[in-house]
Design goal:
Blueprint lengths: L1 H8 L5 E4 L7 E7 L3 H8 E3 L9 E7 L2 E11 L10 E7 L2 H12 L4 E2 L4 H8 L5 H12 L3 H11 L2 H25 L6 H23 L2 H9 L1 E6 L6 H9 L17 E7 L2 E7 L9 H16 L2 E7 L6 H10 L4 E5 L9 H8 L3 E3 L8 H7 L16 H23 L2 H19 L5 H8 L7
Parallel strand pairs: 1-7, 8-10, 8-11, 11-12, 12-13
Antiparallel strand pairs: 1-2, 2-6, 3-4, 4-5, 5-6, 9-10
Helix pairs in contact: 5-6, 6-9, 7-8, 7-16, 8-15, 15-16
Length: 454
């Protein structure tokens, strides 16, 4: 209903926007709306007649003067990204040529699109559901192959299919319960419990299973953050440079060189790993260094994994022990400087810290592969499994689960009307993911985060 009302309220005008970042060799400009084809014809002079999905060569003209040599194509409704008449111009990406093309379009009856307006129109015109629309930006922003695959599965409707399957279970349960409400004289309560409860239990299991993928889904999309911590001069920055494969952090023999966090990324087995080099932790420090140490503690708490670096050539110190205890979480201990004579070993470190230990040398590269192998990353496969990557979706799934559990409790404490209220609430919650029951405010807030031209 909301979707239809928003479509009816949508201004029936024609929009345009660049769909690619500026500065590239080629720029793509999109036009969508009832007059999209006419707008293109006003500015484009081609070598052949424009036809659906057929690229044509020609020029863009403004006030009778050619501003660029381009390729152009039209798409007929509803066979387009937005479901409307669309046109695309492939022009040169230089600032002068692109601005000339945009000015010509603006003077021909189109207005500049709002952020996300093309995809919003696609959603309102039934080209995609709301979960797929959100996946568009996730796919654009993906920094690893695994993240891109996760977004692509949602874009292809994988999450919608799972949500609709859960809603079908709830619909069947509602039909059974409402039959008992409609015919109370039949005394169907025992049959209702027998037939409806298994459907609710199956729905809860399915929703909880989807919600349980959020942790790995978030890591696939945004990467695994790994904080590197330890006292000064144990080789944290050198280890950081070794892991990321380039001289990213400044390395000196002076304690306290690193005053702030420094991060860089690599992609391993399709998953983004973001390493964070932190300031050395010590009790005596100046004011600036104290700020860096506090940021190091914060990074260690927020990271998905922690590497605790100990100087193998100096042995395990009381400062090392205090730092590890202050972490208050599991970490992988890296005995660095394995190229120098040792004053401790892996077995002593395991007894001292009670966790996994890797001996490494940032100078020679020893231990790099073992460290990377010990960092837990979500499993990435070619299966069509859908993972939840949005915090909004995760919160909705949890709320739907709570409503369904309340409905099951109501079987014993309230009448059947109360049971159906909770089930309908869960159904509506799930519909917020696909857009079936999403409010106009929710829909607008999602598309407001999009970039121009999408």
């Amino acid at each position: 209903m909301i979707k239809r009302e928003m479509r009816d309220m949508m201004v029936n005008d024609t929009i345009y926007a660049p769909a690619t970042p500026s500065g590239g060799a080629i720029a793509v400009v999109r036009i969508s709306g009832p007059d999209a084809h006419e707008v293109l014809r006003r500015v484009f002079r081609g070598t052949a007649e424009l036809k659906h999905a057929v690229m044509r060569h020609g020029g863009i003209y403004r006030s009778g003067v050619q501003v660029d040599d381009v390729m152009a194509v039209v798409f007929d409704e509803p066979r387009s990204y937005t479901g409307e008449n669309m046109a695309e111009i492939y022009c040169h990406g230089g600032a002068v040529s692109l601005s000339g093309v945009l000015a010509a379009i603006a003077e021909s009856g189109a207005r500049l699109a709002e952020p996300g307006e093309f995809t919003k129109r696609a959603f309102l015109n039934g080209k995609m559901d709301l979960s797929a629309a959100g996946a568009v930006m996730e796919l654009i922003g993906a920094q690893s192959a695994a993240g891109a695959r996760a977004a692509l599965r949602q874009l292809k409707g994988g999450l919608r299919e799972k949500i609709e399957a859960m809603q079908q279970l709830l619909t069947r349960a509602l039909a059974i319960i409402e039959a008992g409400i409609e015919y109370p004289e039949e005394d169907l309560e025992a049959d209702i419990r027998r037939d409806a409860l298994p459907l609710l239990e199956e729905a809860i299991r399915g929703i909880e299973e989807m919600a349980g993928t959020f942790a790995s889904g978030r890591l696939l999309l945004h990467g695994v953050s790994v904080a590197i911590v330890g006292r000064p001069n144990v080789g944290k920055s050198s280890l950081f440079n070794m892991l990321v494969g380039r001289e990213r952090a400044i390395v000196t023999a002076i304690p306290g060189t690193t005053r702030d966090t420094v991060d860089d990324c690599i992609v391993r087995d399709g998953v983004l790993l973001r390493f964070i080099d932190t300031a050395g932790m010590r009790s005596e420090a100046d004011e600036v260094e104290k700020i860096g140490i506090e940021r190091a503690r914060s990074a260690a708490q927020d990271a998905d994994a922690v590497l605790m670096v100990v100087d193998r050539s100096a042995g395990i110190t009381e400062e090392d022990r205090r730092i590890f205890e202050a972490l208050g979480r599991e970490a992988l201990v890296v005995l660095n400087k394995a190229d120098l004579p040792a004053k401790t070993n892996a077995e002593e470190a395991r007894q001292a810290f009670g966790c996994d230990v890797v001996e490494a040398s940032a100078k020679t590269g020893q231990g790099r592969e073992e460290i990377l192998a010990r960092i837990h990353v979500p499993e990435v496969g070619d299966a069509d499994d859908v993972v939840v990557t949005s915090e909004r979706h995760h919160a909705i799934l949890k709320a739907a689960t709570d409503s369904l559990k309340s409905s099951m409790d109501a079987f014993d404490t309230a009448d059947l009307d109360c049971v159906t209220i909770d089930i309908k609430e869960a159904w509506d919650r799930l519909g917020e993911i696909t857009g079936v029951t999403a409010t106009e405010e929710i829909i607008n807030s999602i598309f407001d985060t999009f970039c121009l031209g999408k």
